[in-house]
Specification:
mainly alpha, 129 residues, flat, 7 helices
């Protein structure tokens, strides 16, 4: 098993915005996009991406504070919507940037849940066939 090295905060911040991590963090990227909490990690990265836009919009939108809050909330909702819509594609792209073939992260996630999926399939077939 290869050593999983976390990126330092600076490199993680760049990674959150889509940059490629150094080769020493290759295994960590795969862990990041396939671990049990990979969806929460994706949401955390999306939040980090949205924070600068939210702060700037709130600071520069004219009007009362409730108008600015509503505008920023609407913008953040749209940002989260698109981020969650493309969550699987984004995780695959991050894995590919780290040097893994296309579809590898999805396969790793699928294999980690193979028993659960087989049980789910068996229950489905018992009920509907």
């Amino acid at each position: 098993m290869a050593l999983v090295r976390r990126p330092d905060p600076f490199h993680w911040l760049l990674y959150a915005f889509g940059a490629r991590l150094p080769a020493r963090n290759r295994e960590w990227v795969l862990h990041d996009v396939t671990t049990r909490t990979w969806q929460l990690r994706h949401i955390a990265r999306a939040t980090v991406q949205l924070i600068p836009a939210v702060v700037l919009l709130y600071a520069f939108i004219p009007g009362e504070s409730w108008v600015r809050v509503m505008a920023v909330t609407g913008g953040a909702a749209i940002g989260y919507f698109y981020s969650l819509t493309y969550m699987y594609e984004s995780s695959e792209q991050r894995a590919m940037k780290a040097g893994y073939p296309q579809g590898y992260a999805a396969n790793v996630r699928e294999e980690s849940h193979a028993e659960q999926n087989a049980e789910r399939r068996r229950r489905y077939e018992d009920r509907w066939r």
